[in-house]
Amino acid sequence: MENKVIYVAGLGLIGGSLALGIKRDHPDYKILGYNRSDKSRNVALERGIVDEATADFKEFAPLSDVIILAVPIKQTIEFIKTLSEMDLKENIIITDAGSTKREIVEAGEKYLAGKSVRFVGSHPMAGSHKSGAIAADVNLFENAYYIFTPSSLTTAGTIDELKKILSGLHARYIEIDAAEHDRVTSQISHFPHVLAASLMEQAGDYATEHEMANHFAAGAFRDMTRIAESEPGMWTSILLTNKEAVADRIDDFKDRLDEVKKLILQGDGDAIWNYFNHAKETRKEMQIHKRGGVESAFDLFIDVPDEEDVILKILELLRGTSLVNIHVNEENREDINGILQISFKNVKDLEHARTVISEKTDYKVHI
Ligand code: NAD
Predict the structure, then answer these.
(1) Closest Cα to atom 18 of ligand 1
(2) Is 75's C-beta closer than 6 angstroms to any atom of ligand 1?
(3) How far is the CA of 13 from the centre of ligand 1 (A)?
(4) What is the pLDDT of residues 208-265, one digit of tens each?
């Protein structure tokens, strides 16, 4: 493949990680970057994430073979409008990284139609609570789903070409209609974030009158509310660009709560048992990670490359430390802070493991 010029607009966690992943398999490509603030722009240059960087979005667009918009959703749409008014290379590929797809694909179709542009929506489904170029990680998308949502401007071969360009991400590429993407993610991602935030609000209010709620909250509550710590700005944009689908999931859930409330008040033990059992069986059938029934209050998340013996290497470092569970989060990784999850019996072992792994390896470690 000839050397290409790839322009990544937005050198945050996602844009920076995409740039690193592209560079891994294509060191000869020229990677140009845009970032509004000096901070991530300078970090991206210092870390070699990009070859050149600008604070003027328009500057590099005419030089590029591929433009990846990795900025918030509203800004992605603004940049699509800006690009529609510019002279770009013939047959350029424009894509994005936004967490919702329908509005972005509609904007691409609306503003870029009639130009020599190939536009396809993208959602690399991995992330973390961190942001900025400082958090960019070449392994972020390893084994994660990378979703393409084609538009009427996605000509045959566009997605295959992008897959080759993105090969260094080591992601799992999949195509799906943009509206269907937004429906599916409303159920498995957007609505759970609303629920976690509401549960946190509810518990916080309750704890003002029942102080011990602050102290008794443990593993189950922690697991249910972890994602309430997500970045508010990103979640606001996600909900505002997927209103109907999320509202539909909220209504559906209200009905389910009413139903279980009725069973509880009726004292219908069999029905309640069935309710829990059905949920348990459904969860077992789903391709989500199973924790093996252990409480996981002392978890360490380690971003590791998908390489031979990597787990053995880590376990060797932890010789003598008692582990409760070990799990590889290799499926859909959006919001999961790392790929290898190790649970310990107590905080002392957890801290020991964090120190040893941080000192002896380059892997990023999160608690
Ligand atoms: P980030 O905060 O790390 O980076 C965002 C980037 O956008 C930064 O470079 C910032 O300077 C820039 N930016 C923000 N507002 C801007 C504006 N008004 N004009 C110009 N530039 C602006 O965030 P991120 O996690 O890298 O998210 C980028 C995109 O990726 C978003 O669309 C998000 O929905 C999507 N995404 C995020 C995740 C995740 O979990 N973090 C996962 C998948 C997709």
Answers:
(1) 75
(2) yes
(3) 7
(4) 999 999 999 887 898 899 899 999 999 999 999 999 999 999 999 999 999 999 999 9
